Structure formats: C-alpha cells, structure tokens
Amino acid sequence: QAAAGGGRTALRACGVHNVCRLLSRRALGFFARDAGVALRKNLGLLRKIMCQESTKFKNVWTTHSASPIAYERGRIYMDNYQCCITSIAQQPRLIYQKSKCAKSEKIEDALLLECPLGEMLPSPSDYKASLIVLTVQNWLLRLSADSGEVLEKVYLAGSCCKFFRYLSWDTPQEVMIVKSAQNKLPAAARQAGIQQTVLFYLAVFQVLPLSFIGMLEINKKIFGNSVTDVAVSNGILIVMYSMGLVRLYNFKAILEQFMEQPVDLGQEFNWNGQVGVVGKFPFGLPCNIKITDTPPLLFEASSLENAFQIGGYPWHYIITPNKKKHKGVFHICSLKDNALAKNGIQEMKCCSLEPDWIYFHPDMSGRIIHVGPNLIKVLKLKEVKNHADQMEIAEDFTIVANRENCVNNSVTVTASGRVVKKRFTLLDDDPEQETFKIVDYEDELDLLSTVAVTQIGADGRAHLDFHCNEHGILLKSIPLKESWDVTYSHEVYFDKDLVLHIEQKPNRRFSCYVYQMVCDTAKDDD
After folding, report:
1. CA atoms within 13 A on the CB side of 441
2. Is 170 a member of any domain?
3. Distance between CA atoms of residues 322 and 497, nearest Å
4. What kind and span of H or E run contains 6?
5. What range defines the domain where residue 153 resides?
6. Which of 92, 304, 434, 468 is least surrounded by CB atoms within 10 angstroms?
7. Tens digit of each residue's pLDDT (9 = 90 or more) over 118-174
8. For residues 371 and 399, is the Cβ–Cβ distance under 8 A?
C-alpha cells in the first residue's frame, strides 16, 4: 500500500495519470533524478561543443604496423591483440604489451564483452570489460581488457570439429555463436567417393557468466546440398544457398526441440564412449544438439548474392532480384505478405565501378539509408493515404556530394581553336570527383557521419562530415590530414570526441591515425 501510495504521488507530481505513460517517460529519462537525464544532458552538451566552428579535430597520434589494427570502444589493438592502447587520453598510451605469441596461439576473431547493468555476477572480474578471443588452436579465451590476463579458457574442438574460426552475437552481450570453417574433404577422399554431409558446426554460449548452451551441426541431409553459409542473429538461424536462396528458421525452437542432453562447462561427461571434462583439453565440447528433421520454415526469399535484410516498422525486407542484370536494383517488401511497397523499387541508376548499397538505419527509426557515389538518400516507410494496410517508401532527406566545380564537357576547344571531342564519359565514382565512401551513425550523439573523397593524381583528400540525423543538415566538416588512396582498404570510426582512421596498404602494411577534439579559438595549422 505504501508503495502504491508513493507511486500515485509520483504520478500526480509529474502530471501523468497513466502508469504506461509514466514508465515510458521514465525510460526516456524525463525525470531529473534519473541517471539517464545527466548522461543525456552531457551528450547534448558534447554534441553542441563538437559542432561549434571553433572546435577542431587534431591529429594527435599516428602509428604503422605489419599486422592488422583493430578498434573496440576506446581501445586500439595491435600485434594480433598482444598490444592494447587506449585512445581516450589526450594522447593514446599503452595499456598493456604481452610477449609475442607463437603461430599456434594466433587469434582468429574477437568480441568485446561489457558488463550487463543491474545483474549480480559471480566474480568481481565480470564487472569489468573483457575481450573474448578465438585462437587458431580452437581455444576460446576471455581476457581482461585492462591487462590481457586470461580470466577463463574453454577448449572447443572435440572429436566432431577441428576448425572453429568465427565469433558473432546472436543477442548482443548475451548469447554468442562460435562458428566453424566450412568442412571440406581432402581431394584424395573426394576422389575415393567419400561423402561429407556436415558443413558447419555452431557452438552456442551464454556470456557473463560464460556457460555452454550446446553445439549443433548444419547437415546437407537436413538443409540440402547447396548450402554455402549460415549465420545466427536475434534468435533466427539464417541458411544461405548457392542459387541465391535465403531461408530463416527459429533458432531458439531448434535448441529446445533437438537438445539431446544439457551439459555444463567443467562437467565430467560420457559422449559416445569418450569420457572427459566439458571444455577441457582434449575432450572439448560435445555435439549435444542433433537436428534429425527439417525444422519448420519461418520465411524464405531469393536474392542476388544472398543479400537479404529485415527491418522497418511494420516489418519489411530488402532484396535484389536474383538476376545479374538487376544488380543495383533493390525491392522493399512487406514481411507479412511479400507485397512490394509503393515506390518500393529503389535504383540509383549510376554508372560506377563500385555498386551503391542500401540498409536499414541503425538508429531503430525504421528508416532506410541508400548510398550512391554522389548521393545519400534517407527513406522512410509510411502508410498510403486512404489505404492503412499498404505502405509506401518516401524520401525523408538527401545528402549530395559537393561537385559544383566538376565540369564534364564532352566537347572542348583548344587555344588554337581546334575542337576536341572526348571518346568517353566519367564514371559517377571517378576518383577526381567527390565520392561518398563511408556512411556511419554515432548513436550516443545522434549524428550521421559521412566520408567523402576526392583524388587528384596520386594525392587523395578526404573529409569526415557530421549531419543532423533527423533532417540531414550539415553540422561539421573535418578534413583528414593524411592522403587517402581509393585503391586501399579504409575504416573510419567516429566515437564521441574521437575520430580514428585505419588504412590497409598493399603487402599487409597498416596505418592508424587518431584525431582528438580540441576547443581553441586561435587559428592555427593544427
């Protein structure tokens, strides 16, 4: 009763007389005593400061490496994750440096693991960020993000699988999938007529505390001969086929229906006559989920190169018709009845070496981002007037590359008066014209970021622009000091007050450029 009385008092105090509205407002941080309000105000201030004309981004650190460079939440990893550098300080500084590992300990993949809020965890180390890594010898390790110390280790490969290679999230920060490389028989075995029916193995883990849910195999006898790849995301098993077919299954239902026997890490277990400890060498993990029949199909679609995305509200999906002549054409259809949305065929009609790309906006607004060489279109789903059951695709806003100074005349006249006709026209993504290369979203500051590049001769220049995520208005432009070669591979991270550019050059040469926000009214070359 006291609690109910206190709740009614809170409702009256804020002028809200509905519990659902109160909970909704609380989730949005409407109350001054909530921790979320302070964070929201601070991020709002940071966004305003960042977009001021006097605020600059200064290149504070540059490094080069012969091995890949990775970035995760303010940490730069080098030397196959043996070296960790923080990028949060005024200048990046070393967090830890481990001794060089042997080839047999090489890390294949990694995921950053962060502590869930509001949960009691068994170990004090669980409350700090850690890195889950997969080694070439099939060890799954949980490392301290602050020291690189091994906190937990699990041996994966038992009698069933020897080559685990990929880590991914089913549910971010909750359920993790470890996937094997595709099983392929040696040439001699194939010539002898031996059949390989198991294509992939998937090991499923709950994280923090780390616990084993089960392992299953993707078998030709169940899913068909033409399976090329599998993935798990948000409780859905996605199976891809060589002819462009994509099939979706309920992954949670598969785990529940075909689980033979639950097992725990550290448990002594008898598996097909082999006795060992689960997760320890050499026993590894048992394949305790056996799919004996084709699971119920949730959905299937045919798309060029298996390109398939789900998003929006109500649910829609994006595919490209499964013919090469339709490359660059995107169909947006209702997941409910496969109906094509009004204006649901999107095509840039651009002539370029690199194709345009499309995806659902990561801000959970249900919008769609379509990126071409010189145009970014943000699209939205809305009801067709007088037809509430039909949806149409409408343009929310566009961002256009700066090509004001670009002149592409097919006929020119020389100083002597001779008329010269060009035998070719420039591509839409010609390096000499400003071209969009990267589009990303910074969720904490609610900013859409774009990287546009112009290359004159051997010297390429890039700038990172911040746009209002709601209306597309340009708020800030940051020139990148280093030259940008469009033939190299590039990654750009925008994380609050940090910009980080990772470049991969030929012969496995990597460079990392770190920019920090500085507020200085003085005009200088920095």
Report:
1. 16
2. yes
3. 43
4. helix 2-13
5. 102-185+196-302
6. 468
7. 678 888 888 889 999 999 999 999 999 989 999 999 999 876 667 899 999 999 999
8. no
Cα 195 from Cα 465, distance rounded (Å): 54
Tell me the one-letter amino acid at 350. C
Q: What is the DSSP letter of 391?
A: E
Region class of 377: left (phi > 0), else alpha (psi between -120 and 50), else beta: beta
Distance CA 239, CA 300 (A): 9
- The SS3 assignment for 407 reads coil
Task: Please give the model's pTM, rounded to 2 decimal places.
Answer: 0.86
Letter string b/e over residues 365-386, b meaning 16 or more CB atoms within 10 A of that residue's CB: bbbbbbbbbbbbbbbbbeeeee
As for how many domains the chain has, the answer is 1
In a domain, 140, yes or no: yes
pLDDT digit string (tens) for 263-322? 999 999 988 888 999 999 999 999 999 999 999 999 999 999 999 999 999 999 999 999
Phi and psi at 201, nearest 5°, equal: -120, 140
Cis peptide bond prior to 314, omega within 30° of 0:
yes
Residues composing the chain: 526
- The answer to whether position 522 is within a domain reads no
Quick one: tokens of 50? Answer: 């960042």
Mapping DSSP to helix (H, G, I), strand (E, B) and coil, where does residue 402 land?
coil
CA distance 512 to 494: 14
| Among candidate residues 212, 207, 210, 208, the one with its CA nearest the CA of residue 126 | 208
Closest C-alpha among 329, 298, 326, 230 to residue 318:
329
Q: Is residue 322 part of a domain?
A: no
Short-list 147, 153, 140, 256, CA closest to 203: 140
